[in-house]
Amino acid sequence: MFGVKGAWPLVGRDDEIKILREAIDSQDYLGAVLTGLPGIGKTVLAQQVARDVEARFELLYIRGSLLTADMPYGALNFVLSELDDEAVDNPLILLRSLQKLFAGRSDGKRTLVLADNIEDLDSASAMAIAHLVRTGAVKVLLVAQALHTSPNELSDLWKDQLIRRVDIEPLSLADSAELLTLGLKGPVSRSVVLDTWHASGGNPLFLQAIGREQVESGYITTQDGIWVAGPRRAPDPGRIITERISARLARLSPDQRRTAEIVAIVGVMPLELLADFAGGNEVDALMETGILEIELTQQPMVRVATGLIGEVIRHQVSVGRSRELVHQLASASLRLPMPALSRMNYAAWCLDGSLEIDPGLAIEAAQLANRYFDTEAALRFLSSIPAEKVGAPEVTEEARAYGVQGDTARALQTLDDFISSDPQNVDLHDWVFMQVLRCRLLSRDHARFMEADTLLAEIRERLFQAGRAECNAFDGLFAEVELLDAELNAHNGRYAAMIEPINELLKRSDSIDPAARHQLCGWLAEALSMTGRQEDAVQLSRLVMSRLADSIEDPLLVEAAQVRLFSVMLISGQWELCLAMISDHQEGMLAGIFDGTSLELAEGCLFAYAGRGTEALTKLLPALSQLRIRDRHEFLSLAEAATAYAYTLTGDAQLSLSHLDQVDLHSRRYDWHTARATKYFAVLASTATRDNPEAAREMLQLADEDRAKGNYGHELFFLCQAVQLGQSDVAERLATSGMDSQGAFAETCALFGKGVASGDTAQILQAAKIAADVGNQKLAVDAANLVQRLSAGSTGEGARSAAAEAGNILRSIGRGNGALKQRALDLLTERERSIARLVTNGMSNREIATMLTLSIRTVEGHMYQVYAKLGVANRSQLKLILD
After folding, report:
1. Is pLDDT of 820 > 90?
2. Mean pLDDT within 32-56
3. Which of 263, 594, 613, 842 could be 646's S-S partner, Cβ–Cβ 3.0 to 4.6 Å?
């Protein structure tokens, strides 16, 4: 791993480099100034630009320092040594002498002054540099944290439009991923990238420091040749980075320090509350220094700018100081409410300071910690509650924590033990929520899942009896039970049975809590998409998202709605929009329902659905490696099956089989959607070693199962693949099912089915075009190849035209030609070229690894780079380019 002080790759700064070069070479400017927070990479960027222009300029490097800040011309001492003593003693003569020195170079080169850390330049040096720039004697490249704290002589150069200003922003998520990949010299799971990016705030110095420390501590480790997050907690910030951040914190006033400490303790605070507590001036000052940032929601929220700064601040607060701050915050909190997440962090801080917390706050914090999958914190909060005050809510949250950890048996045992103890005075609200959790856990248990429906009926009956006495008192509980019913139906694939009950409930009950209403609408949208009403589902999901965006809601509720929208758009065939959603979500997300691994898996599965094997593997392999260590959503078998299919697409039968052997749908009881997706990919992966007709028959059987449940929208996936695999006798059924459903994928299926059934190349060609447009490469290739086969025996103009158009589609997807060979080889490294040539000779990855004395994983890594650089999807396409 690269060191904090050592050389590190310059990533994500191409645009800034271009602007700076132009400013230096341009006749319109006399240079540029770079501004940005400490560690953002200003100096490295300026030095790179200076190296780029060194053929045309002589470089003079100057750096401001606190040691010379009070010494006249302290930063220019080494330059003044070239002048006469008489010139040094007279300011006017000195300026003329400097001007003559730099303007009169015998080699004709101009001088570029790179002035770093200009905030600490002495005023005389700043004046001299500004004079040299204004007279045209030199060009300048200035580096500053902020212009308003820099010498006026230099900031005025920008105000007078003599130099360009370039503000250096934090690295994006994609650039951070590239930096980590280059620094660690290997692929990195999205989970590691997201965690590191959020902790560092995209600050390159922080990012590489976190990476180094986490590797040294063992938190980041290699799994299958990929860097993944281990099971242990992330380490505390190391000494070097702590010292750097501490130096920034030391410059804060006592009031600013107190404000930063409070925000670091609670994580996030409403701006109104913080301004009331600390004063608006302190908040503004902390934002200018990059310690705090504001999230502009309907209720503006303030948080520490990076997780790393927050960690350093929290570690520096002593127990005595923490108690003082907690008491101050508690007093301020009585006037304005804090968000739930802040209350949870506040409760944790109280426990860290050995302060007692109210049992009500402890149970609320435990509930929220469970929702954020922080089960360790949830159990800690619960352990703070005295034994005599433990009741149904506390036992429910304890069981929920075990369930989140994947220990369904222990969770059920915890609930069963409590219920068998015949607890007294459990009110209806607590009883319902306990039984709802128990019902969810039963649905996941292989041995007892049949009990879930019986328990649901029991919950309904008790609520009905209670509701007869108090008509509207239990609307919230009824809604919770309906949500459970929808969840159980979805878990078992009974989507058709969900639609009418949810519709009726939404029509007749205006008193349903908005959060429950949004969740019911989400389940309804998923049911509509699965049953063939994909466009209606997308419209409903977008409506839910718009309503959530216009109100102050739980961020986890918003995230759940985003996941639902992604799901219905996937079934609809709007795959390019799905990819955009994943990208947008990753940039803005914090730790929530779905972490980086889940997002990476979703992206990889999306590419696999579309038949884009190489792109799928770049996402699936890191996700798979991470899931083998931590699989909180039970996605491992899905990832294995999707990876197996991706290898089938790229032509590697051995690796496809090795992953297919790891698929296990029997030891756990998966939800219907996950199980169906796993079977879909597993059947397709099996075509690497068995005949297509056999796989087609299995696909048709799965399609029949979907139709029997009324899941017509999902049936299309299996039915279309059956036809693609050669089961042409069901093409008419595909056409009918496609016309009966909605969305881009349904339209493509209808055209493809009609074309195959009738032998109409025009309709098949149109299906190929639509499939290519939406990114479904496999269907586009299969349809285009079919057009060429059907046209091969015909001499008519129409057939030749159709074959030519089909050829264009194949070429646009990546089918190369011999003319590309040298250009393609030039893109590869020497090792990548040698491996690519062996591949074109028909060798497997295992055979290549043996010949070159490499591991199979290393060969795979090189192959991913080859595929990505050449834009090909499999070995056949690679051979077309290189043969």
Report:
1. no
2. 91
3. 613
Residue type, 774: V
How far is residue 177's CA from residue 188's CA, in Å, rounded to a whole number?
7
Contact 163, 142 (CB under 8 A): yes
Q: CA-to-CA distance for 724 and 781, rounded, in angstroms?
A: 10
Q: Do 568 and 537 meet the contact criterion of CB atoms below 8 Å apart?
A: yes
More confident residue, 517 or 278: 517
Work out the number of other CB atoms within 10 angstroms of the CB of residue 458: 12
The answer for residues whose C-beta is within 8 angstroms of residue 748's C-beta and 6 or more apart is 573, 738, 767, 770, 771, 774, 776, 779
* 290 vs 108, residue with greater confidence: 290
Query: Which of 206 and 327 is assigned the larger pLDDT?
Result: 206
Q: Coil, strand or helix: which one is 189?
A: coil
Give the rounded percent of residues in the chain with a pLDDT score beyond 90.
37
Bridge-based pairing state of the strands 301-304 and 268-270: antiparallel
Distance between alpha carbon 91 and the CA centroid of its chain, in Å?
Answer: 57
CA distance 212 to 209: 5
- Domains in the chain, ordered, with CATH? 14-167 (3.40.50.300), 173-235 (no CATH), 474-573 (1.25.40.10), 595-689 (1.25.40), 818-882 (1.10.10.10)
pLDDT digits 0-9 by tens, 54-98: 888 989 999 988 888 888 888 888 777 777 666 666 778 777 887
**3-class secondary structure, 696:** helix
514-534 pLDDT, tens digit each: 888 888 999 999 999 999 999
Dihedral (C-alpha) 478, 484, 486, 490: value to the nearest 10 degrees? 180
Q: Record the tokens describing residue 33, joined without a space.
A: 């100034």
- C-beta neighbour count of 186 within 10 angstroms: 16
- CA–CA dist 574, 526 (Å, integer): 15
The Cα 560–Cα 95 span in angstroms is 66
| Sequential DSSP letters for 764-787 | HHHHHHHHHHTT-HHHHHHHHHHH
Using CB atoms within 10 A of its CB, is residue 86 exposed (0-12), middle (13-18) or buried (19+)? exposed
Regarding predicted confidence, which is higher, 831 or 390? 390
In degrees, to the nearest 5, what angle opens at C-alpha 183 toward C-alphas 181 and 186?
40
Residues in the chain: 883
Query: Using CA atoms, how far apart are residues 659 and 860, in angstroms rounded to an integer?
Result: 14
- Look up the pTM and report it: 0.79
Neighbouring C-beta atoms of residue 161, cutoff 10 Å: 11
Q: Using DSSP, state whether 308 is helix, strand or coil.
A: helix
Contacts of 535 (CB under 8 A, 6+ apart): 572, 742, 743
Q: Which of 77-81, 128-132, 163-167, 807-811 has the lowest mean pLDDT?
A: 77-81
